[in-house]
Amino acid sequence: MKLHVLLVLLFGSILNLTAQTKGSISGKITDKTTAQPLPYVSVVVKDNGTTVASDVATEEGTFTIKNLPVKTYTLEIVFMGYQTQTINAPLTEDKQNLNLGTVTLTEEATTLQEVSVVKETSTIEQKIDRKVITVGRDLTTAGPTASDIMGNIPSVNVDQDGNISLRGNANVRILVDGRPTTVDAATLLKQIPSSSIKKIELITNPSAKYNPEGMSGIINIVLHKNANDGFNGSANSGVTFGRTPKYNGSVDMNYRKGKLNFFGNIGGNGGKYFNDGQIDRTDNYASNNIFKVMNNNKSVLGKVGFDYYINDFNTLSVYTNQNYGNGTARINNTLLYPAASASNDINLVSNLDGDNKNNAYNLAFKHKFKKEGHTLDFEGNFNDVKETQYVDYVSTVTGASPVYYNDAVIDNRKNVTANLDYVNPLNDKTTLEAGAEARVIRTDNDYNTSRTLANPALNNSVYAYDMDIYSAYATFGQKFSKISYQLGLRAESYNVDANFNRGADTFKDRLFNLYPSAFISYTINEKNSLQLSYSRRVDRPSLEQTKPIREFSTPRVTSLGNMTLEPQFTNSIEANYTKMFGKGSSITAGVFYRMIDHEINRVLYPDESTPDPQDQIMSFANFSHNNAYGFELSFNYKINTWWDIQPAIDFSSISQQGLVAVLRDGSDTEFDYVNRKITANAFNARVNSNFKATKNLSFLLFGFYRGAVNGVQNNSHEMYKIDSGARYSMLNNRLTASVRFNDMFKTMRYAFDSRNPFPQSGKFTWESRTVYIGLNYMFGQGKNRAMQRKQREDNTKQGGGGLF
To answer: Structure pTM?
Structure first.
């Protein structure tokens, strides 16, 4: 251990001695009257009137501009509503790192009412541990919700049901402002208004500071922060025209006075959504399975809370999220046979009625020490979820009387989380972070059916799945002139107790694991940088994957969970390169390699509990070892003052395996179970192009292509589409109107074919061709003031307002 510490210190000393050819300028910007930090202030470095570098202050008002040749510069500090401050900044051989201390800005005599500046065009930035997409108006024009935006982000895919994947893998964790949520990702993304999103962070190789869930990484959605005195906010509304209109709307408000800041918002959406599909089986049991689905969904999401600034060093924050949803669906599933067997035709009509509520209550306390950046945070969160689903079925076989039955499912989940985080900048180059977290998760699932199933234990059942997770982490990082690194380790105790039918069947899992991480970044020059990282991750089985209760059923397929599933683990290595060009253009490129142990994957096999050889069970199982690799490349290029493009491509190759049922030679009803291994190669390409016609009017075109992908069970076919849109700003940018024509040529569909357990092919379509019209209005006024609310996971500071 002593030798390890000595080597680290020696390495740091050598770097420190060899990295003195360039210097840096740093400082902190505050309001002269209130002495409060000012966030997002522009800092411009000039050499004889020529701009050589620039930066934007953090939310705490600090800035650091590095890699400056030793000479005398002029700094211009510019912020809307304040007088520009000009400062002389000499860098010498004796003083290469200049700290200007606190720089105060004085308000202009006239108070400006404009409180928000929104970028026209989205930008992509590669940081040491994440790719950051700053959301401009070109992305918010994509549609009313976060789900619509995600399909435009490099390396991210959203399917027709709203399920999200990153780099071709669906094992991704969704955070909002750095906080986890128990809301299903597909549902959550449809509830967040696109206009509320400030940036999207793709953390494909998270450090030990983050909870280790998610093989492909983390997607963190950062919402706009209100940080103004007085009363201010925004209102959004929109309509999506498909087969029938769908609506969305939200209001976000904030009021700050003295030491108190109150914030609240409410948003909702609803409408009817249509999906169609068919599956054709081509063996001796040939059939045509036709699906017609109509969903009528409504949801309301609200938040209310306050921040209390006890003094300059202590802040208390309290808020609650209240989320309510209701949905009905009618699913018509018709199974048709050739004329000779038409008497066996089956029609299954399902009428579903579901309700859900997801309520969260949060308490956070932040203590700032006198040293800049030295903080201690505590946060407690209680999350209560209840979902109910009632389904009435009518099953009809040609020539027979209809059969009526119903299902009822009630899910209750409670999640208590408490965490403590400590950050200590030991010096201007070194930072130590440490923390601990406890998570207690309780789930109960009650299932009742009036149908008599082949397995009596499944007729009426109770299932409990409880998790206790206790963890602690530490990271140590240093920053030098050209090189920065961070080492981290997270230790975790994971306990699971599963209980089916009150003790009739139980499963326990007790694991202790270490999750190391390492990052290193090298700045070649001010326009070129390299990053290399390593981390270990875990994917824990979800409730839906483990519960041995029917998740869904068709006339021929029943989906069940596997309560004995165990977590899968991933070791991931990643390298990224970023190059900046003039006029705000950039290129980012990355490669990755993953080693996956104990992989969780789908299995499909005949249902031996029924006499019909066509009936199948879909479930999950663990497998031994797989691997994956891939690359991604994205550009942000400004061709001229009125035209910019953002093309991106990504490729992933994933080794997969799963159990498949293969018909025995010469038999139509007997199967052998085979562990099938395949390599799934996935290629995606997209391009976003923006055209600025006037100061207030702009147009966009978006193209998307997803290549065909082989799978263990099915082979998916290619998908592609083209969108167009326009946006117009009025009333000094306070009011923005946008329109988007999605899938103009109606080319999007999901199609597949498979050989096991039966030869079949199919396709599914949805309302991909739609027209969205939206309005966004910003109101209120006030002087910008940074807020200091604790943001879990990424330690960002947040102001009032926002959805989470």
So the answer is: 0.73
